[in-house]
């Protein structure tokens, strides 16, 4: 960052050196400083156009010696009279030089027209009549024709036409080569007019941005106050932008009264910062500003000398300085140990008040005509003060957000720890519940399946006429049922093919002893997310029952098991077919021995599936349909 600032400072220094460097590489003689002059005053009843040429020796009245810079005395005639002040400056022979010549003066202060004659010929003219509002802020710059046959410059005659009761002032003049004088002129022009105008415009742009923010957030009226502050400051410094002739009094009324309202708005802003209502001071400031605004209107014309700025402006500045000093002192006292921002802004207002004192001295012609109007730089002070306030609030907002984030993070960590404990407790409870549910399921399955088979086996053994082969078959059924229960507990990860694979592992050894061939025609199937141990056992019992019926009741020699993805029905199909000759489905369902088929239907409905049989003369085709998703 420091290196960047060093580069920026070096760049600015180079730019200033290029600005101050003369345009020509040829050596130039030093410009002549002209301070000795003489003056006289003539009177007319109206503004007149300056003649194209004039001889100063033919002007009436005696010439009075004068040393520039100087302010000439005010006339004692009627306010309606028009005075023409002539200031004659003699150029010594030693000041002559070659090349383009120029005349430069820091300031011409006059409420009227300006005309400059060089060797009796009109060389410069400004304003037709009335006040020349930008003359105190615009340096005088006249370039002369570079005619080699022209006579050397011997005399510079300045013609200032104005009202009799107003005063005029002229700085000392510089005469010489244009290249040697242009750095003086541009430096004065930039510091005296361009820089204040730029600061004023920047302040107004920020004020417009503040107005846009206020339109979005109406409850934050300090943004509206900041816009009023920027607008009043811009109006109060319109002189820096106006070079057109304005002869009416409304311009002076507008710019002068803007300063009163500027101080009033600053007081309201300070009151917002330190929190004290100060009703009495607010009423006084608003009352004084409103009264002066009304009484100074050109339509009212209560002031007898209005709209002469030579009388109005010094009075305005005096009242504004008193108001600003009062607001500054009261705000500093109210902000003491209460608001650092209030103290900062009060200090800025105090600095602006001090900067306005030279302006008051300049308008009263107490200070030299070559002095500076420092009041124009109050915008820079105000801009910096509010910039600091905005930066402080921005930093505080970031710190507040960081502290809030840190607090929220701590609370979040605490909540996460509590949630982790609760989650662990819930996980333990869920595990216990799962174990309990699985225990209940196993008990129910063993009771309905294995238990029922064992009961049948015991009853058969109690019968003395049962054969050993039938007892063996019953026990094998019990063992198969137990194996199915164990297989249903294996992790299958929603894969029906894995479940069928475990069934094949159990069936093939048993089928080999019976001489029945098992055809395994399995295709890839989509996963069944709902497949869990309970539903897996139901599927295994359905398929087992179908194969058991084939073994018990048909002379089949081949069993074919296949799968298919039912795209149209959004499900899967498991098909078990044989070549055992088939059976009558309706008769079987009506007979007492149809309990196994009815169990298959019941188990299929429990998993939202369905079963179907197709019988012909060659065999039976059993189909189990299962959905991909369950409601």
From TrEMBL:
Annotated transmembrane regions: 197-216, 223-242, 248-270, 282-303, 315-336, 343-361, 373-391
Start and end residues of each Histidine kinase domain: 441-630
Swiss-Prot/TrEMBL keywords: Coiled coil, Kinase, Membrane, Signal, Transferase, Transmembrane, Transmembrane helix, Two-component regulatory system
Annotated coiled-coil segments of the chain: 391-432
Endpoints of the signal sequence: 1-25
Pfam families: HATPase_c
Gene Ontology MF term list: kinase activity
Entry protein name: Sensor histidine kinase
Organism name: Duganella dendranthematis
Lineage: Bacteria, Pseudomonadati, Pseudomonadota, Betaproteobacteria, Burkholderiales
């Amino acid at each position: 960052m420091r290196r960047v600032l060093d580069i920026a400072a070096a760049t600015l220094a180079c730019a200033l050196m290029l600005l101050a460097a003369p345009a020509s590489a040829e050596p130039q003689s030093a410009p002549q400083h002209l301070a000795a002059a003489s003056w006289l005053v003539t009177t007319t009843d109206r503004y007149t156009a300056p003649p194209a040429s004039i001889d100063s020796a033919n002007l009436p009245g005696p010439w009075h010696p004068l040393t520039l810079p100087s302010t000439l005395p005010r006339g004692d005639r009627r306010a309606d009279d028009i005075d023409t002040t002539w200031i004659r400056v003699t150029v010594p022979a030693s000041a002559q030089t070659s090349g383009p010549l120029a005349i430069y003066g820091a300031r011409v202060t006059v409420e009227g027209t300006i005309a400059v004659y060089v060797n009796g010929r009109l060389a410069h003219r400004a304003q037709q009549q009335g006040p020349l509002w930008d003359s105190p802020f615009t340096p005088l710059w006249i370039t002369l024709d570079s005619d080699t046959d022209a006579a050397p410059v011997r005399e510079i005659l300045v013609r200032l036409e104005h009202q009799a009761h107003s005063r005029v002032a002229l700085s000392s003049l510089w005469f010489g080569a244009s290249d040697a004088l242009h750095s003086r002129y541009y430096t004065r022009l930039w510091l005296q007019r361009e820089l204040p105008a730029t600061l004023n415009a920047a302040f107004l742009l920020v004020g417009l941005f503040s107005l846009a923010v206020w339109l979005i957030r109406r409850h934050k009226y300090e943004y509206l106050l900041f816009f009023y502050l920027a607008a009043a400051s811009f109006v109060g410094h319109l002189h820096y932008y106006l070079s057109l002739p304005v002869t009416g009094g409304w311009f002076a009324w507008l710019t002068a009264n803007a300063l009163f309202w500027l101080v009033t708005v600053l007081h309201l802003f300070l009151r917002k910062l330190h929190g004290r209502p100060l009703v009495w001071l607010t009423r006084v400031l608003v009352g004084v500003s409103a009264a002066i605004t009304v009484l100074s209107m050109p339509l009212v014309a209560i002031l007898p000398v209005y709209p002469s700025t030579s009388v109005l402006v010094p009075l305005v500045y005096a009242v504004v300085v008193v108001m600003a000093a009062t607001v500054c002192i009261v705000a500093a006292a109210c902000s003491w140990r209460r608001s650092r921002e209030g103290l900062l802004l009060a200090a800025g207002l105090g600095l602006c008040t001090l900067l306005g004192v030279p302006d008051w001295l300049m308008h009263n012609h107490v200070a030299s005509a070559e002095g500076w109007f420092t009041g124009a730089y109050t915008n820079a002070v105000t801009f910096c003060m509010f910039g600091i306030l905005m930066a402080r609030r921005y930093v505080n907002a970031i710190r507040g957000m960081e502290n809030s984030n840190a607090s929220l993070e701590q609370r979040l960590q605490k909540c996460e720890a509590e949630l982790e404990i609760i989650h662990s407790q819930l996980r333990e409870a869920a595990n216990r519940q799962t174990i309990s549910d699985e225990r209940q399921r196993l008990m129910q399955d063993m009771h309905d399946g294995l238990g029922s088979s064992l009961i049948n086996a015991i009853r058969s053994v109690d019968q003395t006429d049962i054969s050993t082969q039938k007892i063996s078959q019953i026990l094998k059924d019990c063992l198969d049922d137990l194996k199915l229960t164990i297989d249903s507990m294996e992790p299958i990860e929603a894969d029906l093919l894995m479940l069928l694979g475990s069934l094949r592992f159990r069936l093939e050894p048993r089928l080999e002893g019976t001489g029945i061939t098992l055809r395994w025609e399995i295709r890839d199937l989509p996963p069944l997310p709902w497949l869990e141990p309970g539903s897996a056992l139901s599927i295994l019992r359905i398929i087992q029952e179908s194969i058991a019926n084939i073994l018990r009741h048909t002379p089949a020699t081949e069993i074919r098991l296949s799968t298919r993805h039912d795209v149209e029905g959004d499900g899967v199909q498991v098909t078990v077919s044989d070549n055992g000759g088939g059976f009558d489905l309706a008769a079987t369902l009506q007979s007492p021995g149809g309990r196994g088929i009815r169990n298959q239907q019941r188990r299929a409905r429990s998993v939202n599936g369905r079963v179907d049989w197709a019988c012909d003369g060659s065999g039976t085709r059993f189909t189990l349909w299962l959905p991909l998703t369950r409601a």
